[in-house]
Write a structure and sequence with these properties.
The protein is 25% helix and 28% strand. The chain has 374 residues and is of the alpha+beta class. Helix 3 packs across helix 4. Bound molecules: zinc ion. Zinc ion (ZN) binds next to loops.
Length: 374
């Protein structure tokens, strides 16, 4: 009896030992794994890699981390993840992800259309739209108007992509009496300081100076790079700075309307609309679209007080540039102090605005505001 008991005990011990071994192997096996992000979705045409799907990799490596994901069309996609455990085993995971389109199309249009009573015009004539999906999207007009009745009609261009992202842009149809000149898209106004303003084809000039701020926008089709005047003046200024041992270079020059759409939308996504409006212009309201503006060197508050920033603030007017958003003028310009943002206005006006080192802004000088109208 006693011997039998001993034998049993030995058997149980061996069994326990193997169970333990099995448990250890099981635990090790289980602890080597990859953890995926929950609900992975990537934007259409975004450059994304297998890496972007992973949240965590435990005891092993993903061999195809750098593999690009297919984001060329909308919908559910599958990709194989090749995983090598620390013990050298290879595992393959089939993973699905969603390609989504959250971006609205961009409509190119004129803010004001003018015609004479009884004379019908095609409201879609110079209108086009582009979408990140690269599919053709069409624009239609929303609102009521009557070519046989004098008046200003507020209408909308509307454009939707296949994912339901909608763009909606307001424009004005002016039906006049036919006596006023309808061929030139021009209107005039006088500023609070007595300067004459002209709006020509959607572009505002005050006393001959092009104005872009939160009150005066540019048409989406405006601009195609820095103007020759701006580039030439910059090169002169750069050479002068170099003689003083300073290196000044353009970090961000001309930006298209479309580029500003992307930038602004990203900032709104990150910081909210209210915050984004203090440092980034809405599309059409960016001075960078004018071709007369650029940011130099470091586009951040770190640039403030550097020898380059101080030199520019004291000397840029000699080359026709102004410090566009001076310190302490946020309530007037609508933008916080930007030591790196310069605007070409010509030497005469720049010298007036330099004001012996106490910078005036364009809004103060001309007597205009800078406020979004909605
Ligand atoms: Zn800028």
């Amino acid at each position: 009896m006693k011997r039998k008991k001993k034998k049993m005990k030995k058997k149980v011990k061996i069994l326990l030992f193997f169970l333990l071994l099995l448990l250890i192997v099981f635990l090790l096996w289980n602890s080597t794994k990859i953890v995926l992000k929950k609900e992975v979705s990537v934007s259409l045409n975004e450059e994304a890699k297998v890496e972007n799907l992973l949240k965590n990799v435990r005891r092993g490596t993903v061999l195809n981390k750098e593999e690009a994901l297919d984001t060329s069309t909308i919908g559910e996609k599958e990709v194989k993840i090749l995983f090598k455990t620390f013990l050298g085993f290879q595992k393959t995971y089939k993973v699905t992800y969603q390609v989504v389109d959250n971006e609205s199309p961009v409509i190119h249009f004129q803010k004001t259309l003018t015609t004479a009573i009884g004379k019908e015009i095609d409201l879609l004539k110079d209108v086009s739209a582009s979408d990140n999906s690269r599919e053709t999207v069409s624009v239609f007009v929303e609102g009521e108007y009557d070519f046989n009745k004098i008046g200003d009609y507020t209408l909308y261009y509307v454009c939707k992509d296949r994912s339901g992202n909608e763009a909606r842009e307001e424009f004005i149809l002016k039906v006049g009496d036919g006596n006023t000149s309808i061929s030139s898209n021009e209107s005039t106004f006088t500023t609070s300081k007595g300067f004459e303003g002209v709006v020509k084809d959607g572009v505002t000039y005050i006393d001959g100076t092009l104005i872009v701020n939160k009150s005066y926008s540019l048409p989406s089709t405006f601009g195609n790079g820095l103007t020759t005047e701006t580039t030439n003046a910059f090169n002169k200024m750069k050479s002068a700075a170099l003689l003083d041992g300073l290196n000044i270079y353009i970090a961000s020059g001309w930006r298209s309307y479309d580029r500003q759409v992307t930038l602004y939308n990203n900032y709104v996504k990150r910081d909210g609309k209210e915050a984004a409006d203090t440092y980034s212009a809405r599309p059409g309201y960016s001075e960078h679209q004018s071709g007369l503006t650029f940011d130099v060197n470091e586009v951040s508050d770190k640039f403030i007080g550097t020898p380059e920033a101080n030199w520019l603030s004291e000397n840029c007017y000699k080359y026709g540039f102004i410090l566009r958003y001076p310190n302490g003028k946020q309530d007037i310009t609508g933008f916080k102090y930007e030591a790196w943002h310069f605007r070409y206005v010509g030497v005469d006006l720049a010298t007036k605005l330099y004001n012996n080192g106490d910078w005036l802004c364009l809004e103060e000088y001309f007597g205009i505001d800078s406020v979004y109208k909605d």
